[in-house]
Structure formats: structure tokens, C-alpha cells
Amino acid sequence: MRRSILKFSIGFSLLVSLPLCAFAKIYKKGNPNDVATATHPVLCLAGGESDDLWVEGWKVLLKASGGGDVVIVRADAGIGTYESWILNDEGRHNLPKVNSVTTLALTSPRDAFRPEAENAIRQAELIFFDGGDQSLYLKYIQGSPLEKALEYALHDRKTPMGGTSAGMAILGGIDFTAKYSPSPEIALVTSDLAMSHPTAQFLDLDRRTLSPPYLEQVITDTHFSERERQGRLISFMARAVYNRYADVNGLNIKGIGADGGAAYCYNTKTGQGKVFGIGRVHFLVGNTAIEKVFPGHSLDWFGQRQAIKVYSIHGSQTATASFNVSTWTGIGGTEKFWFVDGSNPVKPVFGESE
After folding, report:
1. Distances from the Cα of 105 to the Cαs of 23, 24, 115, 292, in angstroms?
2. Are residues 65 and 89 in the same domain?
3. Residue 82 is inside which H or E element, if any?
4. H/E/C letters for each residue in 119-130?
5. In which element (H, E) is residue 61 found?
């Protein structure tokens, strides 16, 4: 995730970028003329932290753009540093060259109805969602022309796409909305809270926006190992089953958890992909029926200590390991089982077994 820079005047913005529309907050650097290039269907899911940590995955994305026009989508009023990081290769990573980098800064649902915003997405050869607040992305995009343009880019044009942190969170087929806080004093949903209250309002899920190929029954989570979100993602999966989606049950609900500094990039036609960066990406699938998921009781998904099958790959294993989301199988990684012991209705316990 790149650092934000707020633009306080149009004059200052002109010194560093070309604002296409002051109201839609669209900033462009590079060649002002659009180009059309041959692209490849790639999707990258990044767990957050610095993009320099998983830069080899960024090279895959940029190469997949064919050197075309990149659009960075943000859910705030700022402009990040992706423009210089990509165009000027500020990290000295030998990044593939592109025609331009545009920041599309959404500050309200109205922005997603601007023709300029829709056109930027429809003409992009690479679309990337920055971090921030996934509830704002969903609020601004849902039901808008911009959403239709994003769906067209993802499913019809096969435009390369990716997201980091909150940007990854909205790229599952089932999204944790982060619309509700556990309480006025507690802003973040931890694993302990999620496992203790798996049907609470603050575990709200949504399926209406951006379901990439092979991720229809997948929930994503970010900043994973460092924030100990294993129990949280399992609780999201259990909540999806509790929601009684017609195509979801305890044996086919899936999750992808990416550590900060790690990313999984896959071909959206074949499902085959690799992990890049300094951390791990974890691929989860339900392995047994859920014992208990209902109001007033903590989650109990024990399954004789084999409730969730997990396949983990570290970014250092790029040369030897891979995972295919179309078959949900991997090679070269590590397989284990996770579970939530909810025999204590007040304090459930996350655990793992070989």
C-alpha cells in the first residue's frame, strides 16, 4: 500500500499530476493519450504492507498489462504514490514500463456515477485497488456505472486486476464488509471476538460486488498471520454457511488469508498461480460439517481437529510451489488442519493439527 498525499489545491495538483476532472478526483501521470495493448488475465491478492515486499508479483501484473494504462482506485480524497513508484521505478525494481498511471479517488457514491470514472476503468489495461476501508469501497461502488465497468473489465475484457489490504478484501466472491464495529469502544474485529460471536452484526458479509473467477465461494482476509486472524477467517467462513447461501456449505466454503508483504497472483482463465513476497498465503476449505454456529453460542467447528484443510505457501517458494484455485490444490507448500474448539460456549479456542 502506497502512502497517501492529499491535494489541497488544483494548482499544486497540476505540478505533479494531470487532474482530468476536479469533481471526480481523477489524476493521471504519464502519456495523456490512451493506448490499447494486448493484456493477460491475472488477478493479484495482496495482504497489505509495502508493495516493495511483493514486487515480483507487481511485475507479473504490469507485464500482464502489456505496457498499457494503469488505474489505481482509492476510497478517499487523496492521491497515493503509485504513480511515481510505477512510472519512475522509484524502488529501483526494474519494473515493466507502462503508458500511464491514473488515480481514481472515490469520496462518495456520486463519484462512481461520473462518466469520467467509468471511462477510466473501461480503458484501463490494469486495475488495482489500494488499501483503506473496504466498507467505503462497497458503499461507493455498489449499484453504480463504475461497478458495471469493473465487472465488464474483470469478466469480459479479462483486464488484469489486483488489490492490497482493503483492496484485497473486496475481491473475494464473499466479502467481509467491515461496516459495523463490535462496540463504540472497539473498532476492529479480532479472532477472539469473531469466534465468540459468529452470527453478530459486525461479521456482516456481502456477495454483490466483484466476484473474480474461481473465487465465488471464497472469503479473503489480510494482514493475516501478524494479526492472528486465523480464527477470524474461519468465523467468516462459518458465517457464510450460517447465512444459508444456496451454493455454500461446510464442505465447499473457502478462504484465502494473505500475510502482510505477501501476495497470490493467478491466471483467471486457468486458476494457476504463485505466491510472492516475504510472508505466506493460506488457502482454506471446509473439511467437516460445523458443529455449532448460531446466536448466543461461540463457534464450534472442531471436526476431530480437522475442521478446515489449509494449504500454505511462502513467497520464497515461488520457484517450487504453486496453487490452483480452480481445483483448490497446491504443490510444494505445507498442508495442515485448523479448527475452532467451541466446547466452552464463552471462550472458543483456535487450534491446528498436522
Report:
1. 10, 7, 14, 42
2. yes
3. helix 82-87
4. HHHHCCCEEEEC
5. helix 55-64
CA–CA gap between residue 44 and residue 159 (Å, rounded): 12
Q: What is the C-alpha to C-alpha distance for residues 70 and 100, in angstroms, rounded to an integer?
A: 6
CA dihedral 156, 158, 160, 165 (to 10 degrees): 60
Phi first, then psi, for residue 230 (nearest 5°) are -60, -50
Q: Which three cell numbers stand for residue 150?
A: 469493473
C-alpha R_g of the chain: 20
Note the pTM of the prediction, 2 decimals.
0.93
Tally the domains of the chain: 2
Among the listed residues 84, 71, 79, 81, the one whose alpha carbon sits nearest the alpha carbon of residue 7: 79
Residue-number span of the structural domain to which 315 is assigned: 172-354
Q: What is the pLDDT of residues 289-337, one digit of tens each?
A: 999 999 989 999 999 999 999 999 999 999 999 999 999 999 999 999 9
